[in-house]
Amino acid sequence: MVDNMADFSTFHRMLIDFFADDDEDRMFQFREIQRSDEAMVLKNTKRESVPNVTNYIDNVINVMRLPQHVDDFQYHYRVSRHLFDIILGELYDSLLRKGKGTHETVTPDKQLLVGLCYLANNQSMREVAHIFDLSKSTVHKIVLDVCGALGQIGDRVIRWPSMERQREIARNVEQVCHIPGVVGFIDGTHIRLSFALGHDNDFYNRKGFPSIQLQIVVDDQMMITNVYTGWPGCTHDARVLRNSSLFQRAEAGELFLQNHHIFGDSAYPLRNWLITPFKNFGHLTPQQKRFNQRLSSVRVTVERAFGHLKGRFRRLREVPLHNAEEICKLIYAACILHNFCIVHEEDVEEYIQADENIHPNHDQNIFQNGHDGVVRRLQLVNLP
């Protein structure tokens, strides 16, 4: 094909020389023909390689180990080099590949870099592939593999607090809001999707964009202790809760110490283990107003957790994946990474940003309050 292109060029140069003494219009026509034919040959010629970034890890990542560049790593990958090494140690065996295919030879550290790059930024898989000199399909598989490897250690990283830990959390929270027995805070947020999966209108929430629900419970330190995701954006928060294992186990008395509970907002039903504020129709007593203020002062912890989750792992601001299972796997992986950052005190405050998608449906509770929950709240509101 290259020889043919050379023949075209030689032929056109001969014609241009032949008409060199003729009028300029004729010469211009032949030059245009030459450019058109050369472009056609190039278009039909299969390239041996595609321009790409090479040796990114050697030329950039390894340089970020130097003291003067160590902050650059965290700036781009949203975790410190130290925490990266800790996470790599946890995932190394799961990411170790022994095959001979193109993606099978990618080392565990490079896989984790690819996964973090995708989770930490809003770059497309095509852009990540360009940086790491990989194909887009390989990046897609690596991202899912990294999320899957994180999911395998999820039960060790996201755990419901033990009885002793519940007592500790309750003591810490009571010092702030003067309400006893609080062991966590529950809320939901919407993970924006680039498009509704399967063109299903159920994924559109009341703000008009497609999303998937994410429900979490956090402790007083913003550690996620329970996560549940996967319901379409139109689903009421209370319905998400009632379909979760958290609800089933709490109703069965398996999760909470006696007289201990979590705080939620008015979208959730009152239970003896889930306390919500009084609805304000303009007739609240001073004690009820004070109770609402106290509850709100500490429940903000879960909103801050969402702000950190989406502020650090920016892919959660909008997920362009097509498969619901893959999206849930990615969300769960980000929640696990969130807890790693909390445990290792990874500049948490620096990444907290306001989450505008916590209450896009502006829901009020649609389920009947439990009698025991009503009684429990009355006991709490009358405390000094």
Automatic annotation (TrEMBL):
One of its GO terms (cellular component) is nucleus. This is DDE Tnp4 domain-containing protein. Its main location: nucleus. Belongs to the HARBI1 family. GO terms for molecular function: hydrolase activity; metal ion binding; nuclease activity. Residues 186-339 form the DDE Tnp4 domain. Keywords: Hydrolase, Metal-binding, Nuclease, Nucleus. Coiled coil: none annotated. The lineage of its organism: Eukaryota, Metazoa, Spiralia, Lophotrochozoa, Mollusca. Its cofactor is a divalent metal cation. The keyword Nucleus applies. It comes from the Eukaryota. It is found in: Nucleus.
